[in-house]
Write a structure and sequence with these properties.
Number of helices of chain B: 9
CATH superfamily of the largest domain in chain A: MetI-like
Strand content of chain A: under 5%
CATH class of the largest domain in chain A: Mainly Alpha
Order of helices and strands of chain B: EEEHEEHEHHHEHEHEEHH
Radius of gyration of chain A: 30 Å
Number of domains of chain A: 2
Oligomer: heterodimer
Strand order of the largest sheet of chain B: 6-7-8-3-9-10
Order of helices and strands of chain A: HHHHHHHHH
Largest interface: A-B, 30 and 38 residues
Strand content of chain B: 25-35%
Number of strands of chain B: 10
Shape of chain B: globular
CATH topology of the largest domain in chain A: MetI-like fold
CATH architecture of the largest domain in chain A: Orthogonal Bundle
Largest sheet of chain A: none
Number of helices of chain A: 9
Distance between the termini of chain B: 38 Å
Distance between the termini of chain A: 78 Å
Structural class of chain A: mainly alpha
Radius of gyration of chain B: 18 Å
C-alpha cells in the first residue's frame, strides 16, 4: 500500500513541476488526432466512393478501364499503408521525401514537423477508413439503391441522398475506433521529433529518470482522453439516430389513427382505471358476464 | 384505339445460361390496369424489372411512346422518373421521414421547389391515408403503412405508368386489404398500372387485362373475365384451378 502512496506522491511532484509540459503535450496529441482523423476520413470516403462506382459489362471500354484502374490504385494504397508500421512510414516520408527530391521538398522547423505528422497520420487513417467506407456502402440493402433508381435518381444523387447518410451512420463506430487509435498511436511521431503527450514524457524523464512515475501519469492521461472521446462519439451516434418516437401530424384531433398510440381516456396498463378493467375481466371469467353484451 | 404508352417487343432475358424470359410481347395503353399472374419463378418480376431497366434485357425492345429505351444513349434515369415502381420490400429510404421520402425525388430529379414538393407529397400522402405519419421514419410504421407510403412516393413523381412488383406479398392479410384498397382507388382514378400479383381477386375484379406467364413466356392473355372463367390453355387452367380450390 505504501508503494502506491509513494507512487502517488512522486506523480504529484512530477505533475506539479511539469504540468504545463504535460498539458501542452495533451494539446498537441488531441489536435493531431482530431485533424488527422478528419482528413483521414475524407480520404477514406473518397476512396470508398470511387471504389464502389458500379460498371456494367456493356459500358464503354474507357470507363471500365478507368474504374478498374482506380480500384487497383486504391487497393495498392490500402495494402501498403495498412500493412506497414506507421513509425516506418513516418521515417520514409519525413526523411525520404527530401532524400528523393534532393532537398527540394523538406519539412522545415516546427510547422514542417506538424505538416509531416498530419500527413502521415492522415494517410494511415485513410487507408483503414477506405475499407470501412467500402464495407459501409456495400452493407446497405440493394433495395435502397433500387428504390432511388426507380424514382429516377442518378448514381450521384442516390449516393449523396440515400446511401452515404446510412453508410456513414453505420461506420461511425469505426471512425470512433480510428480516432481513439490515433490518440494513442500519434505517440510514435517522436521518431520525427514531434513532441506530443508521449514526447513530453520522454523529455521529462530524460531530466530526472522517474520513468515509471511519469508513465503512470501518461497512462491516466491517455485513458482520460480516450474515455472522453468514446463518450462524445456515443452522444453523436444517438444524435444521428434521432428520436425513437414521432409526432402525429394531425389537424383534426378527433380522427384517431388506429393502433399507433393509446387513447388518453384508455390510460396505460399501470393506472387505476386499467386495474378496474382487469378485475372486471377476472370476475367475468369466474362468474360469467354480468352486465350483458352490448 | 387508345394511345399506347408501353410496348414490349420480343423481350428476352438470360442470367448466364438460365433463360428467364423468352420472346415476351405485349402492350400497355393509357388507363390500362394489367395484371401479370403466374407461378413463382415464371419470370413475372424479372419482366417488371426489365421494364424499369433495373435489369438489362438480353434481347428485344421496350418502346415508351414509340421510343426504344433499351437503346444506347438513352437516359435511364429520365425514363425511370416517368415510370413509377412499387416494390415487394417497400424500399423506403430508411434515413428519411415519410414526408422526405415523398419529396426527395421531386426535388432532386424533377427540380421542384421545396414548397411545391411538399404540397404535392401531402396531396398523395393524404390520398393513401398516410398524411398523419409524415414525421415518422420507415422503421416506426407497419408494413402496410410502408407500402402505402411507397405508393405515395411513386405517385408524387407523377408517372405515366405505375409498376407494382408483388406489392402485397410481404404483408399480413389485414394489411393486404389496406394496400389493395389504395390500388383499387388508383385504378378507378384512371391510373395506368402494371401489377405483378398473387391476389387473384384483384387481377379478376380490378384489372382490365390479364397476362398469365409460365416458364418465361406469356401463356395466355386477355380480358380478365374471359381468362378466369374460361381459360384456354391447359397450363392456365391448372394454375387457376389451384386458386379456385384454395
Amino acid at each position: 500500500m505504501d508503494k502506491f502512496i509513494e507512487l502517488g506522491m512522486d506523480m504529484a511532484a512530477l505533475w506539479g513541476q511539469y504540468w504545463d509540459r504535460y498539458l501542452s503535450g495533451i494539446r498537441s496529441t488531441l489536435i493531431l488526432a482530431v485533424v488527422a482523423t478528419l482528413i483521414g476520413c475524407l480520404i477514406g470516403l473518397i476512396c470508398g466512393i470511387l471504389n464502389t462506382i458500379p460498371y456494367a459489362k456493356n459500358d464503354p471500354l474507357p470507363k471500365r478501364f478507368l474504374l478498374k484502374l482506380i480500384r487497383v490504385v486504391v487497393r495498392i494504397y490500402v495494402e501498403v499503408f495498412r500493412g506497414t508500421p506507421m513509425v516506418l512510414q513516418a521515417v520514409f516520408i519525413y526523411y525520404g521525401l527530401p532524400y528523393f527530391t534532393d532537398q527540394q521538398i523538406m519539412f522545415r522547423g516546427n510547422s514542417g514537423m506538424w505538416l509531416a505528422a498530419i500527413i502521415i497520420v492522415s494517410i494511415n487513417t485513410g487507408a483503414y477508413m477506405a475499407e470501412s467506407v467500402r464495407g459501409g456502402i456495400i452493407s446497405i440493402d440493394p433495395g435502397q439503391t433500387e428504390g432511388a433508381k426507380a424514382i429516377g435518381m442518378t448514381h450521384v444523387q442516390t449516393m449523396t441522398s440515400v446511401i452515404l447518410p446510412q453508410a456513414l451512420r453505420n461506420i461511425l463506430p469505426q471512425i470512433g475506433n480510428n480516432f481513439i487509435i490515433n490518440i494513442k498511436d500519434t505517440s510514435v511521431m517522436f521518431i520525427i521529433g514531434f513532441i506530443e503527450f508521449f514526447g513530453q514524457h520522454r523529455n521529462i524523464v530524460g531530466n530526472n529518470y522517474m520513468y515509471f512515475q511519469s508513465a503512470a501519469i501518461e497512462m491516466i492521461g491517455y485513458l482520460c482522453m480516450t474515455l472522453v472521446a468514446s463518450f462524445l462519439l456515443r452522444l453523436l451516434e444517438r444524435r444521428m439516430d434521432g428520436a425513437d418516437s414521432y409526432e402525429l401530424a394531425q389537424a383534426d384531433q378527433l380522427t384517431m389513427a388506429a393502433g399507433t398510440y393509446s387513447h388518453p381516456s384508455r390510460g396505460t396498463p399501470f393506472d387505476e382505471r386499467s386495474k378496474e378493467q382487469r378485475e372486471r375481466i377476472r370476475q367475468e371469467l369466474k362468474h360469467g358476464r354480468t352486465r350483458g353484451d352490448r | 384505339m387508345s394511345n399506347t404508352i408501353l410496348e414490349v417487343r420480343h423481350l428476352s432475358k438470360t442470367f448466364g445460361k438460365n433463360e428467364v424470359l423468352r420472346d415476351i410481347d405485349f402492350t400497355v395503353r393509357a388507363g390500362d390496369v394489367t395484371s401479370i399472374i403466374g407461378a413463382s419463378g415464371s419470370g413475372k418480376s424479372t419482366l417488371l424489372r426489365c421494364i424499369n431497366l433495373l435489369e438489362t434485357p438480353t434481347a428485344g425492345a421496350i418502346l415508351f411512346h414509340g421510343q426504344d429505351i433499351t437503346g444506347k444513349g438513352m437516359k435511364a434515369a429520365a425514363y425511370r422518373s416517368k415510370v413509377g415502381m412499387v416494390f415487394q420490400s417497400f424500399n423506403l429510404f430508411n434515413n428519411m421521414t415519410v414526408l422526405d421520402n415523398c419529396m426527395v425525388g421531386q426535388i432532386k430529379v424533377l427540380k421542384k421547389s421545396k414548397d411545391e414538393a411538399k404540397e404535392n407529397a401531402m396531396k398523395y400522402l393524404e390520398r393513401v391515408g398516410m398524411a398523419p405519419y409524415i414525421n415518422a421514419k420507415p422503421r416506426q410504421i407497419s408494413g402496410g403503412q410502408k407500402q402505402r407510403v411507397a405508393i405515395a412516393r411513386a405517385l408524387a413523381m407523377e408517372p405515366e405508368v405505375l409498376l407494382f412488383d408483388e406489392p402485397t406479398s410481404a404483408l399480413d392479410p389485414e394489411m393486404v386489404g389496406e394496400v389493395l384498397d389504395v390500388m383499387r382507388s388508383l385504378a378507378d382514378g384512371g391510373m395506368t398500372m402494371l401489377v405483378v400479383t398473387h391476389e387473384m381477386a384483384f387481377a379478376r375484379d380490378v384489372s382490365n387485362h390479364v397476362v398469365f406467364m409460365s416458364e418465361g413466356v406469356i401463356c395466355e392473355e386477355g380480358d380478365p373475365k374471359e381468362v378466369f372463367s374460361n381459360p384456354k390453355q391447359q397450363r392456365t387452367q391448372e394454375f387457376l384451378s389451384r386458386f379456385a380450390r384454395g
